[in-house]
Amino acid sequence: MITLYSYPPLCGAADNNGYGLKVFAYLRLAGVPFAHEHIFDASQAPRGQLPYIVDDGEVVGDSDTIIAHVARQHEVDLDAALTPAQRDTAVMVARTLDDLYWVMSYSRWKDEAFWPAFRDLMMGEHPQLTADGMEKARAYNAQRYHFQGIGRFAPEAAYARGLADLRVLANLVPEGGYVFGPRPTSVDAALYGFIANILFSPIETPLKRFVMERECLVRHCRAIHAAVGAPGG
Known about the structure:
alpha+beta, Glutaredoxin, Glutathione S-transferase Yfyf (Class Pi), Chain A, domain 2, four-stranded mixed β-sheet
């Protein structure tokens, strides 16, 4: 049986990180049984990053690699019917979400306008967290943002980048159904992982305001949320 190791839930989403929630959603949509272990410490994870899975003793990290492994080993490929062009689109969506990740994270840990609210939200939902621990995590993330580049952006410039990503994604999501038709695929799981972490948060960042104004994104997110069920794994 698979065990998924990922960050803890937040605001009704099964993982407060887009990548872990993406894998959670894929496993649920594919109907693959799994246990879900929520952890904060990623030091023992492959490359020091969450999520990862342990599947019959095999450790697999990186969300896309995990999904490929599950599809192959458990014969539940949600993307089996996709055309080559659709597969290419899915890759481009994944790369756009990679870019959006940094702006989402920036809004939580870097931006002084929203950091206190995010800190209090996390500590309120996870009482084991401390103010000192959150400050240390913030300092660590500040280093990551600096070397990645987003940390050198003023807030307005950072959000302009994230809003451009969201605009592209909103244009890909139809008014009904899923991105490639009536059945969800891995791209829908990926979109849910990130949009849910924006939509369900009570913090009114520019990213959330944009999502709330795009009915297609709200509908799609809520449809996947209902399909994958309550957090817990």
